[in-house]
Backbone:
């Protein structure tokens, strides 16, 4: 049976068919659906972990116990999981283990554009890279075979265009696997120096063996066409090459992108007149080829930035592009915005109004940095708001502490905010942290987290009590506000900034998009009262626009949150 | 060998482009085509400009559609149609919901909404089929079904049996929404 599947769904199918038992992940675009789809199979135990390091270690534990396991994360998540990854390379595995890492060229939903292949090289572990959903599923099975035969965790690299593109997949049965008896093996798994010293040579030997595997594996394949042009490529770039050239050029498609083969590249290079390497982001294959003393064209022709397409390749080769028309008028950009009724909006309005310095974090609320609120001074990585404000205030002193806050979401706080808060309490920092608790992991599309009281399957689970947690780490001043109530939220912010001790404000209101949150009727503008002062437009609500000198509310978007009614001094915005 | 056909679905994040592309994907796969559908998830879904690519034929390689390649652009909003018009083939067709949604730069007054942009495109010889899909969606019983109204309109131009579309809708949407969506599809088809 064939089915159209997202790349991420095909990965999940591969996990099912490979007999995988345990999957632990932290959501992150474009990797999230791997775990969401895996959770639909009752045979696989799936969970959301608080962060990628925990998830990777959970998968390690399961592999140590002898079952096949996996974890999935976005590219920056692998930074968090790098610590276990590098030593997992030494211990190897008992049951097979895959770490899925999804890169986001063009940064559709990310803070940087890092190329995860560097991790495979640095940690000395194999990395596979599929080019469509069919390969995604097949590569999962091959990755487990490699993991177990070569005693190594395996990285499987996805990118946005493979993860979020649907193509046809042939469905197969699940492999039945027995739980093996557990055998203690401290020489292999206790990575104290005496043992690790003995494991490092194993890692180097494994690299040699894997390099040989690359010479013969089906993962790497040559498609000979005309020999004037030879192209070495992998992943989504393979599709763009085939789109432009079809079978008219010769292609070496690499599915095992670490370690890279030597002999097939040498042979391919000698069989073609001119050699090109086409890969998104960094010139990793290109460097490998050039280090072998083989001439090729790569980043001289193709940018190390952003996403490619068939057009990128046509332009680089000087081929004709299809004719097209475009409008002459300027089309205004349409950046993402906080949704109508977003509980974060009122809080950011308060912070902007009071000209407060905001160290921000990663999530929907990062959109508070955008026009018209511009209510954010920094966003670095998960948890950096809470750690960063402490450094900012230690450097800036009392003046700084009285007008600076950190803003972090509930899920991000669980991921990496807690340790920063411990540091604030422990090192006596007069910092104010606002946890914007919308009771869900929002930006990645509504995943449960340890504060929500539900697990990945929507079953009741233990819930972290944020107030008690903050008290427990040593913060005495903890208060909860409703961000829909502008006055209450403003008073809380100003009071907590004024006191000379650390404090946490929990700005709590569930995400408006959650199914259980019922929208109120849309508000209405009373045109007799509205004088067109544009005060309400300062909120940056996508449901409020300015038409014919008056405010206008789009009833298809408005959810009746009522924040704008509090801003209008003339009472011109009326609740229904 | 059949030339690959390209359909772009564009609009504002949250308008339901993912359901429309899912419907097309199911339909075209059932018709026996090789199909690729490329979606947008994550940040751009929060009210930003979104684009989904649907490609089908004997063998489809690239999951995305580049400039001058689209046979159809289905747009949920007026200026989004104009934003991606450069992707349209010379003899391609734009099917567009006449709704205007101001983007944030227009709301806060740093940019203006180019009201006449579709007429401008028509003036350049572009085929533009503009109609009020939102009103038809309301008539069907739910403003959120404008996506399926647009699919109904697309079906007029497609060489695939009406019944197969209805079958695909039944296989795509949740049971409780089937009736509304079939009505929305009919209204778009018969408009």
Residues:
């Amino acid at each position: 049976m064939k089915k159209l599947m997202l790349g991420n769904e095909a990965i999940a199918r591969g996990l099912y068919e490979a007999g995988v038992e345990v999957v632990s992940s932290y959501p992150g675009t474009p990797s999230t659906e791997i775990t969401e789809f895996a959770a639909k199979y009752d045979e696989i135990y799936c969970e959301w972990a608080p962060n990628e390091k925990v998830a990777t270690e959970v998968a390690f534990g399961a592999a140590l116990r002898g079952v096949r396991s996996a974890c999935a994360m976005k590219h920056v998540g692998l930074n968090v999981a790098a610590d276990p990854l590098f030593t997992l390379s030494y211990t190897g595995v008992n049951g097979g283990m895959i770490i899925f890492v999804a890169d986001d060229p063009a940064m559709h939903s990310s803070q940087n554009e890092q190329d995860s292949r560097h991790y495979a090289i640095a940690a000395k572990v194999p990395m596979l890279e599929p080019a469509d959903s069919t390969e995604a599923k097949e590569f999962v099975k091959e990755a487990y075979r490699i993991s177990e035969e070569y005693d190594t965790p395996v990285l499987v690299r996805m990118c946005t265009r493979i993860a979020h593109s649907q193509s046809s997949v042939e469905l197969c049965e699940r492999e039945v696997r027995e739980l093996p008896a557990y055998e203690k093996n401290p020489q292999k798994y206790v990575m104290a120096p005496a043992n690790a010293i003995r494991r490092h040579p194993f890692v180097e030997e494994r690299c040699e063996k894997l390099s040989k595997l690359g010479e013969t594996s089906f993962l790497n394949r040559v498609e000979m066409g005309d020999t004037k042009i030879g192209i070495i490529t992998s992943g989504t770039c393979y599709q763009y090459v085939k789109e432009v050239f079809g079978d008219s050029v010769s292609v070496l498609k690499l599915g095992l992108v670490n370690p890279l083969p030597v002999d097939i590249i040498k042979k391919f290079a000698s069989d073609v007149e001119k050699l090109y390497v086409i890969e998104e982001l960094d010139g990793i294959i290109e460097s490998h080829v050039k280090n072998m003393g083989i001439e090729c064209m790569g980043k001289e022709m193709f940018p190390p930035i952003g996403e490619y397409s068939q057009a990128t390749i046509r332009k680089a080769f000087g081929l004709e592009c299809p004719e097209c028309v475009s409008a002459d008028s300027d089309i205004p950009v349409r950046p993402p915005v906080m949704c109508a009724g977003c509980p974060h909006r009122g809080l950011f309005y308060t912070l902007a109004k009071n000209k407060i310095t905001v160290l921000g974090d990663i999530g929907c609320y990062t959109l508070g940095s955008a026009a018209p609120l511009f209510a954010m001074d920094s966003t670095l990585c998960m948890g950096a708001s809470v750690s960063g404000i402490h450094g900012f205030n230690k450097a800036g002193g009392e003046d700084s502490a009285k007008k600076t806050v950190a803003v972090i979401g509930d899920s991000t706080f669980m991921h990496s905010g807690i340790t920063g808060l411990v540091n604030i309490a422990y090192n006596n920092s007069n910092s104010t942290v606002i946890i914007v608790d919308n009771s869900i992991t929002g930006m990645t599309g509504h995943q449960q987290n340890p504060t929500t009281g539900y697990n990945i399957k929507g079953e009741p689970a233990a819930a972290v009590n944020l107030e008690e947690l903050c008290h427990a780490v040593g913060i005495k001043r903890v208060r909860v506000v409703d961000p829909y109530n502008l006055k209450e939220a403003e008073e809380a912010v100003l009071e907590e900034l004024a006191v000379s001790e650390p404090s946490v404000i929990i700005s709590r209101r569930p995400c408006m998009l959650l199914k259980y949150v019922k929208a109120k009727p849309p508000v209405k503008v009373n045109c007799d009262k509205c004088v067109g002062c544009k005060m309400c437009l300062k909120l940056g609500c996508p449901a409020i626009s300015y038409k014919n000198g008056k405010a206008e509310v789009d009833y298809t978007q408005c959810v009746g949150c009522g924040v704008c009614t509090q801003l209008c001094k003339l009472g011109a915005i009326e609740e229904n | 060998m059949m030339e690959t056909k390209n359909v772009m679905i564009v609009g504002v994040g949250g308008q339901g482009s993912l359901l429309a592309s899912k419907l097309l994907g199911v339909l075209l796969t059932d018709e026996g085509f090789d199909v690729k559908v490329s979606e947008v998830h994550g940040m751009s879904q929060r009210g930003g400009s979104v684009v989904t690519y649907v490609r089908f034929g004997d063998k489809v390689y690239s999951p995305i559609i580049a400039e001058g390649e689209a046979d159809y652009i289905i747009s949920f909003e007026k200026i989004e149609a104009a934003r991606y018009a450069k992707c349209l083939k010379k003899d391609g067709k734009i099917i567009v919901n006449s709704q205007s949604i101001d983007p944030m730069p227009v709301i806060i007054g740093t940019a203006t909404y180019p009201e006449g942009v579709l007429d401008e495109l028509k003036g350049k010889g572009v085929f533009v089929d503009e109609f009020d899909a939102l009103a038809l969606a309301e008539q069907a019983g739910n403003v959120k079904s404008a996506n399926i109204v647009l699919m109904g309109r697309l079906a007029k131009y497609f060489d695939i049996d009406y019944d197969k579309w209805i079958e695909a809708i039944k296989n795509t949407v949740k049971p409780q929404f089937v009736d509304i969506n079939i009505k929305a599809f009919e209204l778009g088809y018969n408009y």
The first helix of chain B runs from residue 17 to 30. Chain B touches chain A through 64 residues (CB under 8 Å). The helical segments of chain B are 17-30, 78-83, 104-107, 117-123, 133-140, 146-157, 162-172, 178-190. Chain B has one domain: 5-190.
